[in-house]
Amino acid sequence: MMLDTGNSNIICDLDDRGVATITLSRAQKRNALSLAMWIAIGELFDKLSDESSVRCVILTGAGGHFSAGADISEFSVVRADAKAGQEYDRLNDAATAAIRNCRKPVVAAVSGVAVGGGLGLAMACDLRVGDSSIRMGIPAGRLGLVYSILDSTLLVERLGLTRAKEVLLTGTIFGLTDAVRLGLVDRVAEPEALSGARALAGEIALNAPLSLIGNKAILNAVADGSAPSRQAELNELIAQAFDSRDYREGQAAFAEKRAPRFTGA
Known about the structure:
Blueprint: E1 2-3, E2 10-14, E3 19-24, H1 35-49, E4 56-61, H2 75-78, H3 82-101, E5 106-110, E6 113-115, H4 117-124, E7 127-130, E8 135-137, H5 149-159, H6 161-170, H7 176-182, E9 187-188, H8 193-205, H9 209-224, H10 231-242, H11 245-256
Parallel strand pairs: 3-4, 4-5, 5-7, 6-8, 7-9
Antiparallel strand pairs: 1-2, 2-3
Helix pairs in contact: 1-3, 3-4, 5-6, 9-10
């Protein structure tokens, strides 16, 4: 089933497992992201976060590439000065945060180029599947840019400080071997990443929806240091799972040695 994304360069398909696949579809520019695309990505992930039929999300790119990052050709208009640049960065961060904070697990299927803002999108996802065609890096220093606080935070969360510095301070574009070494890729799939991402998303989607939501929320809160101040909210997620029909179904399925049939309630 196709879902409305509000942007012709972004396609979203929902399958019968509850896996939504979002495809950045601007192959002629290696899926470089226009400002309109950044806005649409944020709005789409906010929507999928609250969509009960969605259990897991895949983010990928068309034409053999994930994303070449922000569309620099429009910078003279949309980032012409400090004021415009700050507004652009706000919208960029909103899209990145919508992925990171999406209540549903998000898997990036990375082939070809994933650089700059494209790599930032991949880092916002929960897991990344890559293949031998990948070229990943952040050439911000070569463009005279300082990477955003949010993107830098995610880079350190995913890689650790020293490896994040290697990526950001060198501006190197890494192939698969170094991407795995650095932690830019969590799983390798051949012949292409999307098939591996679909298998991983299907594995995730088999689990109870309330468990997926609660476990992701708690892990993110632990990672960003907000868990102590959000204890009441996070404990409520634990209580909701205990009180759910899916919890009872999980116990029954275990006792009866069958696959559980979770409904998200």
